[in-house]
Amino acid sequence: MIALLGFASGLPLVLSDSTLQAWMAVQGVSIVHVGLFSLVGLPYVLKFLWAPLLDRFRLGWLSRRRDWTLLAQCVLVCLLAYVGIADLAAGPLLWLGIVAVCIAFMSATQDIAVDAYRTEILSDSERGFGAAIFVTGYRVAMLIAGAGALALADQIGFANTYIVMAGLLVIGIAANIAAPAVSSNVELPRSVGEAVILPLRDFFMRKGAVWLLVIVFCYKLGDAFAGRLTLYFVLNDLEFSLTEVGIIYKALGLFATIGGGLYGGVLMYRIGLYRSLVLFAWLQALTNLGFCGLAMIGKSYIAMLMVVGLENLAGGMGTIAFVAFIMSMCHRSFTATQFAVLTAFASIGRTISGPPSGYLIDSFGWLVFFFLTFIIALPVLALLRMKRGLIEELDTGSDGTC
User: Fold this and answer.
1) 185-210: buried (b, 16+ CB within 10 Å) or exposed (e) per residue?
2) I want to staple 318 with a disulfide (CB 3.0 to 4.6 A). Which of 128, 248, 280, 289 is the partner?
3) How many whole angstroms from its chain centre is CA 359?
4) 3 state SS of 378
5) Rounded distance, CA 175 to CA 81, Å?
6) In Å, what is the CA distance from 303 to each residue of 227, 311, 352?
């Protein structure tokens, strides 16, 4: 069930982001406008604002977490189907942006509930492998909503593809209904105010809380900049076709990510959280340089295979350690709010990187831009070394978190 819930989380994210970006690229939308369109992901950054409601209330259908998941999934099916039925990318960009923001809002709400459910149902010893299973489902969804959607769009068009993708989300609804309830005697907060204050007070009263937030923000920042407009790069500058991008960039990339995630989960179990975070951060930074080579070489199937494969392998490993790191900081009484706050910090880079990336590429070109993404990925390594003791305490659970 964890894998299927991961599938449900991954599907709408890609459809409101990179697949939509590809649709706009095909429609001839400028790189600057595509970059600005990344701001539709702001709900992923701001989701902590309504996460306390999910800690405070239950809707009375299944269970506290699964109720909210079901609501979000049903609305997402309707929104994604509407994008296809109305063929929104062929009309005014403003209306497409509004609907895309609504999709991101409901997707973020689903993530809040699913992340809380996963954190509560997995024991401490299951975190690493549980995260790997969840991310595997997540990445399979990204494969289908990315590579699969692009290949399908080549045959039936993007509008019809979005209708098909809406139907696939029913898998997540079925998984959520069949998922087991969490065995917990945790008392719900007595008010919305309590649901807001208690989780934040619990987190910020612990040692090194601010430094932990800084690490969360920085860990995937280099990857966020490198990947934000790369799809535009391979489609418009390297001139790969939609099908080629679907097979090489999306399919191969996501299989490499899944492999990296599963291997990363096993390796993290052996070497611990801190060493995994450091090793995988180095790999993420170094593989960004591969895109510099691709920018110099131009269109090359072999170079594309190598660069995309290695970059996604490293990214998959880093994601597993990063998710386990966040889970280790959450108290079981406030998982929805605390996980939302932490993942919101992590999403800031992915959300805000679009506009500056577009302007940097327009001014300096792809080669300089990709080198800058390597530089951006380095500071977190110093932060990890500075706070090694703090991270090792989280790994052993000696700070009292879940």
Assistant:
1) eeeebeeeeebbebbbebbeebebee
2) 280
3) 23
4) coil
5) 20
6) 17, 12, 29
CB atoms within 10 A of CB 238: 19
In b/e form, how buried is each residue of 315-349, taking b as 16+ CB within 10 angstroms? bbbbbbbbbbbbbbbbbebbbbbbbbbbbbbbbbb
Per-residue pLDDT tens digits for 109-123? 999 898 888 877 776
* pLDDT tens-digit readout, 48-79: 888 888 877 778 777 778 889 999 999 999 99
Torsion sign, CA atoms 315, 316, 320, 321: negative
Distance CA 304, CA 273 (A): 31
pLDDT of residue 280 exceeding 90, the answer is yes
Confidence (pLDDT) at 186? 61
Secondary structure class of 377 (helix, strand, coil)? coil
**Alpha carbons 393 and 391: distance in angstroms, whole number:** 5
**Amino acid identity, position 18:** S
Is domain 2-181+189-396 given the CATH code 1.20.1250.20 in the classification?
Answer: yes
Rounded distance, CA 381 to CA 359, Å? 27
